[in-house]
Amino acid sequence: MTRGELFLISAPSGAGKNSLMDALGAHLGHERLAFVVSHTTRPPRAGERDGVDYHFVNDAQFEEMVRADRFLEWARVYDHRYGTAAAEVLPRLAQGIDVVHDLDVQGATRLRLRMPEAHSIFVLPPSYAELRRRLEGRGADEAGARARRLALSLSEIECYRDYEYVIVNSDLQLAAATLAAIIVEKRHRRARMQEVAEAIADDFRTALGGAR
Ligand code: 5GP
User: Which of 15, 60, 96, 120 has the greatest CB tally within 10 Å of its CB?
Assistant: First the structure.
């Protein structure tokens, strides 16, 4: 079985990464594609569902997972901890499923050290004004937290340099199509197509065997 590949996506808060992830599913279909559901100690926002948006855990549960070495990486982001459980990633890659994971820049750096074959994509908002507008429109955080996210946005944005690909999210559908194109390109590398191509070649060998 050809292994799936891991795609790490980072963006400053408000760059539109969540909508992009949703739109990506629509572009690629969900077959052979999985999204990591991270563990977090952050409380759920209105409308977020446990096991869908995140696995919401308390500090003790998170700590227990750290001690049991069940995370590929974890990081403190803003006031809470977020982690990538190995169980969310490794079995799927082994099953030939591509895994898309949205995580912060520290997490992406750590995960790349552990899995250097992962592909990394940075999503930029088109401008500061647009990022601010999106954060204000969100209403999920109180003004203080929003101001802090904006203040940190420049140092986050400069991290684009550490990523293999950069997408500017001005138009959601275009950005999703671009992300899908990156994933599709990897899927069609010869090494990944080898099994399929050999099965087709076998079909030809069988069909033409008698004629040789
Ligand atoms: P939010 O609380 O807005 O959902 O996410 C805050 C930040 O945590 C985002 O930058 C998001 O990418 C990051 N994040 C989500 N899951 C993970 C994870 O598993 N590991 C790390 N390091 N960061 C994560």
Answer: 15
Ligand 1 mutation target, pool 82, 99, 152, most atoms within 8 A of CB: 82
Contact 24, 173 (CB under 8 A): no
Residue 189's identity, in one-letter code, is R
> How many angstroms is it from 147 CA to the middle of ligand 1?
18
If you measure from the C-alpha of residue 74 to the centroid of ligand 1, how many angstroms do you get, rounded to a whole number?
9
Atom number of ligand 1 nearest to Cα 39? 19
> What does pTM read for this prediction?
0.92
Atom of ligand 1 nearest to the CA of 111: 22
For residue 15, give every residue at least 6 positions away whose Cβ sits within 8 Å of its Cβ, in sequence order, or none: 123, 124, 125, 131, 134, 169
115 within 8 A of 178, measured Cβ to Cβ: no
Query: Rounded to an integer, what distance in angstroms lies between the CA atom of residue 57 and that of residue 209?
Result: 59
Ligand 1 surroundings by CB, under 6 angstroms: 13, 38, 42, 73, 75, 77, 82-84, 102-104, 106-107
Could you give the dihedral angle defined by the CA atoms of residues 60, 64, 70 and 73, in that order, rounded to the nearest 10 degrees? 50
pLDDT at 210: 64
| Tens digits of residue pLDDT in 110-150 | 999 999 999 999 999 999 999 999 888 766 557 787 888 88
161-203 pLDDT tens trace: 999 999 999 999 999 999 999 999 999 999 999 999 999 999 9
